């Protein structure tokens, strides 16, 4: 059965974007890593475009800081576009690694061109060691 450590910080633009995992001390994370082969974690990016926004927005770059704080993952986010089924667009990032020092994620940053026409947020899932 996988063991998990869940993040306690939800993102807000007014707060620092540092993730902390309640109940997962450095000693406990070390123990999980010693007894595991694989670590996984999901992050969901949700955005809601402005109603008057008709054109697709440019891609944005996102970086996820690894637990080691020496490496990061980089990805591109598609522009936030209103579709016919929902007013919210979700993108799911799934991290799976045998290099256990990379998870849990500790921070993230979104780089964009000053586009402020839509609302967005992240939901960071628990890290699972197995």
From TrEMBL:
<keyword id="KW-0176">Collagen</keyword>
<keyword id="KW-0964">Secreted</keyword>
<protein>
    <submittedName>
        <fullName>Collagen alpha-3(V) chain</fullName>
    </submittedName>
</protein>
<dbReference type="InterPro" id="IPR000885">
    <property type="entry name" value="Fib_collagen_C"/>
</dbReference>
<dbReference type="GO" id="GO:0005581">
    <property type="term" value="C:collagen trimer"/>
</dbReference>
<dbReference type="Pfam" id="PF01410">
    <property type="entry name" value="COLFI"/>
</dbReference>
<dbReference type="GO" id="GO:0005576">
    <property type="term" value="C:extracellular region"/>
</dbReference>
<feature type="domain" description="Fibrillar collagen NC1">
    <location>
        <begin position="1"/>
        <end position="130"/>
    </location>
</feature>
<dbReference type="GO" id="GO:0005201">
    <property type="term" value="F:extracellular matrix structural constituent"/>
</dbReference>
């Amino acid at each position: 059965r996988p063991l998990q450590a869940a993040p306690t910080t939800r993102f807000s633009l007014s707060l620092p974007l540092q993730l902390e995992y309640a109940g997962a001390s450095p000693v406990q994370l070390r123990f999980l890593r010693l007894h595991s082969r694989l670590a996984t974690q999901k992050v969901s990016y949700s955005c809601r475009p402005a109603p008057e926004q008709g054109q697709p927005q440019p891609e944005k770059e996102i970086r996820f800081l690894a637990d080691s704080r020496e490496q990061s993952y980089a990805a591109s986010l598609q522009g936030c576009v209103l579709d016919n089924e929902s007013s919210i667009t979700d993108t799911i990032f799934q991290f799976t690694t045998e290099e256990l020092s990379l998870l849990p994620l500790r921070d993230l940053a979104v780089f964009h061109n000053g586009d402020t026409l839509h609302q967005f947020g992240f939901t960071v899932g628990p890290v699972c060691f197995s």
